[in-house]
Structures are given as C-alpha cells and as structure tokens.
Specification:
Layout: H1 24-36, E1 77-83, H2 90-99, H3 109-115, H4 124-138, H5 142-158, E2 161-168, H6 192-210, E3 213-221, H7 228-237, E4 243-249, H8 260-272, E5 275-280, H9 286-294, E6 300-303, H10 311-320, E7 323-326, H11 328-333, H12 345-351, E8 356-358, H13 363-366, H14 370-381, H15 385-397, H16 403-416
Parallel strand pairs: 1-2, 2-3, 3-4, 4-5, 5-6, 6-7, 7-8
Helix pairs in contact: 1-4, 5-6, 7-8, 15-16
Main location: membrane
InterPro entries: A/AMP_deam_AS, A_deaminase_dom, Ado/ade_deaminase, Metal_Hydrolase
EC number: 3.5.4.4
Length: 435
Amino acid sequence: MQPRGGRRGAGGEGGGHRLCCCCCFLLESMRLSALALTSSRLLSLGCRTVSPPGARDGARDGAGSGAPTALSFDKPKVELHIHLDGAIRPKTILEVAKRRKIKLPTKNDNQFLKLITCDGPTTLTEMLTKFGYFMPIVAGDRDAIRQIAYELVEDKANEKIVYFEARYSPHLLANCDVYPIPWKQSEGDLSPDEVVRLVNEGFEKGQRNFGIKVRSILSCLRHMEAWSPEVVELCKKYRKDGVVGLDLAGDESINYEPSRGHVQTYQEAVRCGIHRTVHAGEVGPPEVVREAVEILKAERIGHGYSIIKDAKLYQEILQKDIHLEACLYSSYITGACKADFSKHPVVRFMNDGANFSLSTDDPLIFNSTIHTEYNMAAKDMNFTEMQFMRMNLNAARSSFLCENKKKELLNQLRKAYGMPEEPKLDTNLNNYPCL
Ligand SMILES: [Zn+2]
C-alpha cells in the first residue's frame, strides 16, 4: 500500500500557488469548489510561517515518513470525522489521471502532489484550490470511486483504527442527475445514487479484507441547498447498507444561518431516525453551534472550537454530552485555532470532561495521518495514554452505530485497553435499532 502521511518533499508551496497559468481548465471547477466544497475548509485564514506543532521534534507523522517514529498511542482507535474525498491516496489520484488520460496542470507528478497538499498554514484561496485540482480526476469514474473507498479502509486498518465513519457528498462525485454538474465535468451517467452504491461496495470489500468496521455519513453542503433533500433520501434508502448519518459541511464563516432547505432536510432526518452531525464552530461563531444543536438537532458537532467563547452554550454542550469531533492538525492548517496548542480549545475540552475525540478531517490535503493527531496531543498538549483511551471510548459510545454494534465496539476497545467489559451506555444516542 501507499502509506498516507509520508512527507513527500521538503517545504510547502511558499504561498505562491494561486489560480494561474496552466490551470485554465480548472478555473471554473475552482469557482464551483468555492460553492460546493465537501468539507468546511472555507475558512478565513492568514498566511503564517510558524512551524507545525508536533513537528518541532520531527515526530509529526507516525507512518510513511521513512524513519521510525514513536507513536504516542498505538492502540485500537475510533475515528468519526474524515472526508472520503479528502483522504484519497495521492498515488491513486495519479494512477486514475493516467488511466483516464487527464493531463495534470503541472510538469510532473511530484509538483502535482505538492500542489494538492498543504505543509503549513495557508490561505483560504489556496485551500480552495486543492479540491479543484484533484476532484475532476476521480469524480464520475466508477472504478476510482470504488477504489478510493476500499483503500481508505486499508489505510485506516494500518493506523489501528478499528471503526471509522467516513463522510462525503454523493453529488460531488457524480456527473449526472446533479445540477450544476460539479468540477466542469461533461455530463455522464453516474448519479449521486450510484455513487453511494459504489462507495458502499468499496467499504464492504474493505471490511471483509481488513477486518475493521466502517460506516458512512452523507454530506449536505451549505451552499448547495437544492441537493440536500436528495441527500437525506439517500440516507434513508441506504441505511441498511452502512449509511448511518447526515452531515452539513460548507462555509460557516460567510453563511452560517441554516437555510430553510437544510432545516427541512434535518427535520426529515429526525423524523426518520437518521443520525445527525453538523460542521459548526470551526471558524464560525458559537451561534453556528447553537443553531446546529437547537434547530438542526445535531447529535454531534464537527469541530465546535468556538463554543468556549460562549460559557452558557459550552455548559449546555457539556451537560447534554454532545460529542465534539476535533481535528487538531486541521485546525492548525486552516487557522481555526492558534498555533500555541497549550491554549487549544481541546485542552479545555479535556480538562472539563467534555465528550470529544480526535480525527484527521482531510488527511490527503494536510499530508497527515491519525498519528499526527495523537502525536500532537501528546507532545504539545501533554495528553496521557489514559486520556487517549477515555477519548476513544467516548468516540465509540457517540458513534452512529446501532446499539448492539456499539456495545461490541466498546467491549473491543475495553479489552484492548485492559479494562473490564462494561456495556453500560451513558449516551443520548441509544434509541436507534440495528438494521
Ligand atoms: Zn470536516
């Protein structure tokens, strides 16, 4: 396999990559990406040149760096916040481009790999360009979609992730029955519905071959309200095939009020017993989190860092035991949080006994692995092994698995951690039957 997280070259892009020269074919797709980005990477960023936390001692990554690196937590783990299309193997993108005869906008492969990743904090504009470069290569291609799903399972198994939930927008990988057709693709015959089936096939095969559990979450996009009703319908249609939840991603910084279409979509999810998470409070104000919880009835929050600015809301989140899907390295790269990790909101979360866990978000773009997260937490925030174990148990009990599978997962972790089995669940997510 191609280990993700290997540093593919020294240095970043020096802040020099803009929409330019040989990227003409991508201009339109980049414009669209600004509207329809799968993750909430649409953030107000500043160019900073500080060294990445955790990288100061050369231990940012635990896999693929070519040099053995001590892992801060080498036990079974659960990951709840990762974007399928933000976690593709770079090698696969290059292979698919070659097979489909798609010309890269760079002179060679290495330049392209540098182009689609960030080695340090970057600007909003540069971040947006990343999806626009590689999504046109994999979107609309059945084999590529099956492959990226399958390979993600292998990569996560190699990171000792025993259960993960991957999210994606089916519409952004389709090339028909979607308007506008994303990434300036020509109209084809791959619908959002079939995209979900293809991803399910890849995950199914991966689960069989690598022995870990995978479920998927379908993402609505804040700027693509028209797509949302179909997203919840797909959640309902494929709930017996591994689709366990609904997500809302997109630009909370400039448009954080949930529009009526999204509200109706989330109401339908509540009505049908579809689990719900929402990207909120990453760079947006605490109000976005309040709306996510009170209006969209989110059971988990993607990121949620800004809640510490609103003491009342923060206490409510703690009291309701709402799970916070934190992504440390992502928050550093996007500028959501300051580079001084001793003051990161996650430190507050830990000290206050909040229900949270660590995830990679978009490891392709961040050139990271789950070990990046744990190494940073250990080295920059002094997290202990016991705290890591507690965090993973929180992730397991806050997962969107049905109750029986959740108990199995909790017991699997407890056994690996040397804890007595204790299937008692202290969760507000226990009303969902196994399907
Ligand atoms: Zn995300």
